[in-house]
UniProtKB/TrEMBL annotation:
The keyword Ion transport applies. SUPFAM superfamilies: AtpF-like (SSF159468). InterPro entries: ATPase_V1-cplx_f_g_su (IPR008218), ATPase_V1-cplx_fsu_euk (IPR005772), ATPase_V1_fsu_sf (IPR036906). This is V-type proton ATPase subunit F. It comes from Callosobruchus maculatus.
Amino acid sequence: MALHSAQKGKLISVIGDEDTCVGFLLGGIGEINKNRHANFMVVDKNTAVSEIEECFKKFVKRDDIDIILINQNVAEIIRHVIDSHNAPIPAVLEIPSKDHPYDASKDSILRRAKGMFNPDELL
């Protein structure tokens, strides 16, 4: 399946702090489509919550994006929007940032997956 997606030109997108985005861009994931829309968003302390929500919703609607990587601390800010996304594609993966370590208890996707195996753990 991953090979099939790669052949069709599916993208990974990133929403995160500058260090995270730069790291992934240096790794070659950066793309600006024909409509001049990037597949990444740098979030800093001055970024409005509405901007982050709007970017996430745009990434979810794009048919050329299969995976959305988001810093977990940013995901916490728009948790209600992430929790409302329940389609398998694009997959939403919460990742740590330099200043905020990963906390599995906050990851809504992981909690949902655990609930599939043990309904008592579903929050």
